[in-house]
């Protein structure tokens, strides 16, 4: 059953995050843990159950190798890339996870954590040849930090265009999970060009960004899952810009 929630601009969300970040609250770790839980549920493995409170709880055991799905994580240079890589480290218990870095810059600690957990770095030619063998693609390229002009460029645009074209050729398609917003979608207006992966599910953190439900947002975002990372008190005094329906609300794992 869907729930109706307010929507906010990227700047309103950043302002709500700021005091928590300054206080050392690990928002990235919270977001990554929740993202991993949602991906586990999407993979429909026995390792994830939904509690009566709606919180996704992982069962800590590894999946037999013969049953492990394959997951591709697209990681950009900013916080969304860090979210995706930390989530990849969690997911390596139940899946064979590949990480494609689409920028020369990346979150060094998150990548080290992912690789130490068994995540494999891959290059675009490997992905291009095998994209249909992935059960899921996690889009962690860009988030709300690119709200001035979120259009993908360079290596990121090339990767998304190649994967998008592979997906359009038909056959078995992996689902796409967007991290916070589909990369390339403007978080406030919903404007986007053609270099965007259409998501099956968007896992958005703290609050629903208005661009998910305006412009091209509804066509690109898929089902919206809202993750409570603790921004409620800061957003309580802020006027929302609209409203949206989300498929569910989950609470990020404890620090």
Automatic annotation (TrEMBL):
**What top-level class of enzyme does the UniProt entry assign?**
isomerase
Q: What is the required cofactor set for this protein? A: K(+)
Task: Write down the chemical reaction(s) this protein catalyses.
Answer: (6R)-NADPHX = (6S)-NADPHX; (6R)-NADHX = (6S)-NADHX
Positions with a binding annotation for K(+): 80, 139, 183
Q: Which Gene3D superfamilies match?
A: YjeF N-terminal domain (3.40.50.10260)
Alphabetized PROSITE patterns for the sequence: YJEF_N
Give the matching InterPro entries. YjeF_N_dom, YjeF_N_dom_sf
| Superkingdom in the source lineage | Bacteria
Purpose of the protein: Catalyzes the epimerization of the S- and R-forms of NAD(P)HX, a damaged form of NAD(P)H that is a result of enzymatic or heat-dependent hydration. This is a prerequisite for the S-specific NAD(P)H-hydrate dehydratase to allow the repair of both epimers of NAD(P)HX.
As for family, the record states: Belongs to the NnrE/AIBP family.
Query: What protein am I looking at?
Result: NAD(P)H-hydrate epimerase
């Amino acid at each position: 059953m869907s729930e109706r929630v307010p929507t906010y601009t990227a700047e309103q969300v950043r302002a709500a995050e700021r005091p928590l970040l300054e206080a050392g609250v690990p928002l990235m770790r919270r977001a990554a843990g929740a993202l991993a839980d949602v991906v586990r549920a999407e993979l429909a493995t026995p390792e994830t159950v939904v509690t009566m409170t709606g919180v996704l709880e992982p069962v800590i055991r590894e999946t037999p190798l013969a049953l492990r799905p394959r997951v591709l994580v697209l990681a950009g240079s900013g916080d969304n890339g860090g979210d995706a890589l930390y989530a990849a480290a969690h997911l390596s218990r139940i899946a064979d996870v590949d990480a494609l870095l689409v920028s020369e810059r990346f979150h060094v600690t998150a990548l080290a954590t992912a690789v130490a957990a068994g995540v494999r770095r891959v290059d675009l030619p490997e992905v291009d040849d095998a994209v249909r063998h992935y059960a899921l693609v996690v889009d962690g390229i860009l988030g709300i930090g690119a709200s001035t002009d979120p259009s993908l460029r360079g290596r990121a645009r090339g990767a998304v265009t190649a994967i998008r074209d592979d997906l359009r050729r038909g056959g078995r398609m992996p689902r796409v999970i967007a991290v916070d917003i589909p990369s390339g979608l403007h978080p406030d207006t919903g404007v986007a060009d053609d270099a965007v992966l259409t998501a099956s599910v968007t896992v958005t953190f703290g609050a629903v960004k208005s661009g998910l439900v305006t412009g091209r947002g509804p066509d690109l975002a898929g089902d919206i899952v809202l993750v409570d990372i603790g921004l409620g008190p800061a957003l309580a005094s802020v006027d929302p810009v609209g409203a949206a329906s989300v498929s569910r609300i989950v609470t990020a794992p404890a620090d």
